[in-house]
Amino acid sequence: MKLLISNGHLVDPAAPENTGMNLLVENGRVSAWIRPGDAQPEVDETFDASGLLVAPGFIDMHVHLREPGQEHKETISTGCAAAVAGGFTSVCPMPNTSPVNDNAAITRYMIEQGERASLANVFPIGAITKSSDGSELAEMGEMKAAGAVAVSDDGRPVPNAGIMRRAMQYAKDFELPVIDHCEDRSLSAGGVMHEGRISLLLGLKGMPALAEEIDIVRDLLIAKETGAHIHIAHVSTKGAIEAVRRAKNEGISVTCEVAPHHFTLTDRSVEGYDTNTKMAPPLRSEQHLEAVIEAIKDRTIDAIASDHAPHHADEKALEYDKAPFGIIGLETSIGLAMTELLYKGIISLEQLVELYSANPAKILRLGGRGTLKAGSVADITILDPDCQWTYINSESRSKSRNSPFDGREFRGAAVATIVGGRFVFKR
Ligand SMILES: [Zn+2]
User: How far is C-alpha 415 from the geometric centre of its chain's CA atoms?
Assistant: First the structure.
């Protein structure tokens, strides 16, 4: 099977000189870059990408696919359908499934369900501790051998510094990044939104920025001491970003990601008590959002990850205090980034591809991905930079509908998604 992607504008930070090339895909790999004026090979299929951007496949390194255990919210199959429609060729499901992905059998099960769905690649993230209860380390080596690409107790941050230190020592030996949801529960417990002026006005219990920042500082110190790679999940506060920036300058092996809602919404959105504005970390105030945007611009932030967290409508219909944390985000991520970052001049096209592909591939050591160089895996995201579209929640491929972006208008969309040389989505 030979595919030629012609006339597109290639965006690959690893090969910036090759923007005008046609791309030849053979047997699931990028086999050559061909100058449009040169003789073109005989192929089975040609995709005319005139006016479109051709990028290495986008990787969402932080999603919740709810399988096994909560298939009424999402399955690996429906989550992957949402992923490829959003332009993602790979997704990394967090281990807070039921049971928790803390062993090789569940890691393998998740990968197999991904293969059965045959849409996006599924690269699971294993738990740091058994059942993510923070007490006993999970079998990292076995999970890695089964295909896990990182470890995290996302949603249930490891409270004990001693356990976290041992976890990082092991993770370093196994060459697994530790993805860290930073939240000190002694400061955030009972909180349902950002602690500040708005939480006071609304009479809702707040989660202070300090809860995130104190945990980041602790774990950066542990990372420094152990030499493990720490990847901070969904940074959302000014102080958290400053801590990461300082740590990077100091040479600590740290990267971080941001979720699209943290560069587009503030705690003002909570004013209507819409439970689709409830997530952890919470939507912060304007000064934190400004710090997030500055950190995207100056590359302190390495990746954009949706933190796609499906919940059933009945649960999100509860009052604000009782509703679960989290929103879906696989289908709105790129629209938000293109509209709010690219077209507002905050990032370049190359940066967009770094944030969505090159950097996640590097952090997770997904060799052969994150670039379109000859020999790489033919995971390709094709974007229409001028597509004007409106996100309609009821049309989502996800099983859940908990998005605050219903009816939002975007400029820029994924129009075709190719995984291993095969089209898995066309708009
Ligand atoms: Zn989290």
Answer: 19
